[in-house]
Every structure is written in C-alpha cells, then in structure tokens.
C-alpha cells in the first residue's frame, strides 16, 4: 500500500445513528520512511450530505461522490441505499447508451485525474 494515500471507507452508521465517513492514512517518518502510526478520522457525513444536497444543478440535477481510482464506485449518492455501491446501480433510469456516454465522458476522466 502507498503510504501517501488516504483510504476512504463508504459512509456507515455510527453508534449515535448518524452516518460517518472514515478516512485512514499512515503517519510516516520522512527521515527514514518508517511507520509512526496510523490516523483514523471519522467525518460526520450528515453535514456533507446536507451541503451536497443543497447544491442545485439545473432543475433536477444533484451531486454525488465517487472514488477517483474506481469512479464507478460510489462514496455517496443522495438517492441510493447504502447497499447500492456503484453508479450504474444508483442511476437505474439511465439507458445503456446514456450510461456509456456518462462513463466515457465523465467517469473515465475522473479516473485519469487520479494522482496516486
């Protein structure tokens, strides 16, 4: 595993019942590249989802978050259940041609931006 990469887990329910996004990364000693430890951050995802859902895109558009190294995999989608983990599942109203265009023109470009 690349020590410079943060790993994002899908949002999950916390003990309090709210959704959290967990981010884990290594803490590396820059002098000798030894591992100091691991940091784990839980981000209250309710605030993130409220912020994303408040964005207006044209009349009926909405935002969602995908992984950069696998942009067909969802991190967050406003209308998807937490068991639906990919864009195709979350966008059932797209025809095969629409999804193919979306995949080639949007999702593949997101993947090409991955710097890790």
Structure characterization notes:
Helix content is 27%, strand content 25%. The mean pLDDT is 83. The chain has three helices and six strands. It has 116 residues and is of the alpha+beta class. The chain has helices at residues 45-54, 87-90, 96-112, and strands spanning 7-8, 12-13, 19-28, 35-44, 65-66, 74-76. The termini are close together. The strands form two sheets. Strands 1, 2, 3 and 4 form a four-stranded antiparallel β-sheet that branches.
Task: Report the uncertain regions.
Answer: none
Q: Which sheet architecture does the biggest sheet show?
A: 4 strands, antiparallel
Q: What sort of overall outline do the alpha carbons produce when their principal axes are compared?
A: globular
How much strand? 25-35%
Structural class: alpha+beta
Number of helices: 3
Distance between the termini: 11 Å
In helices, the fraction of residues equals 25-40%
Q: Write down the secondary-structure element order.
A: EEEEHEEHH
Question: What is the number of E strands?
Answer: 6
Radius of gyration, in angstroms, nearest whole number:
17 Å
Mean pLDDT across residues: 83
């Amino acid at each position: 595993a690349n020590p410079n990469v943060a790993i994002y887990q899908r949002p999950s329910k916390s003990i309090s019942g709210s959704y959290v996004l967990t981010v884990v990364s290594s803490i590396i000693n820059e002098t000798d590249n030894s591992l100091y430890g691991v940091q784990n951050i839980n981000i209250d995802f309710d605030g993130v989802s409220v912020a994303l859902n408040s964005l207006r895109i044209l009349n009926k558009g909405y935002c969602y978050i995908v992984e950069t190294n696998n942009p067909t995999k969802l991190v967050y989608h406003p209308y998807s259940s937490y068991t639906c983990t990919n864009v195709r599942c979350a966008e059932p109203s797209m025809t095969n041609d629409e999804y193919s265009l979306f995949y080639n023109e949007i999702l593949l470009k997101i993947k090409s931006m991955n710097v890790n």
